[in-house]
Amino acid sequence: MSQLSTFAAPAPEAAPPEDAALESPALEAVSPEGAAPAAGVTGAEALIRSLEEVGVDTVFGIPGGAILPAYDPLMDSTEVRHILVRHEQGAGHAATGYAQATGRVGVCMAT
Q1: What is the C-alpha separation between 39 and 35, in angstroms, rounded?
Q2: Mind listing the domains of the chain with CATH numbers?
Q3: What's this model's pTM, rounded to 2 decimal places?
Q4: 76 or 19: which carries more pLDDT confidence?
């Protein structure tokens, strides 16, 4: 006959105070010294600017759907080039291959 072991659940820990999340340093806004506020910047512009700031130079993707607004600032960028693919899966595979071949970040933009 096999013996079944019993499992004792750990005692529940005391829940943190409700306002603890508001005091978390991870939620504090971090801004570089002397940086101008980002007023008037769309999410799409912020996305492309952040890609530029981290040194991304190539993006694989296909415009359409929810990602379409990001293509206006992407086309205006002089630092990030876009490689058009025929299918979203192709963009993912191309970004993976790019990362493996170059050691840089591979970026896929898809819906």
Answers
A1: 12
A2: 43-109 (3.40.50.970)
A3: 0.64
A4: 76
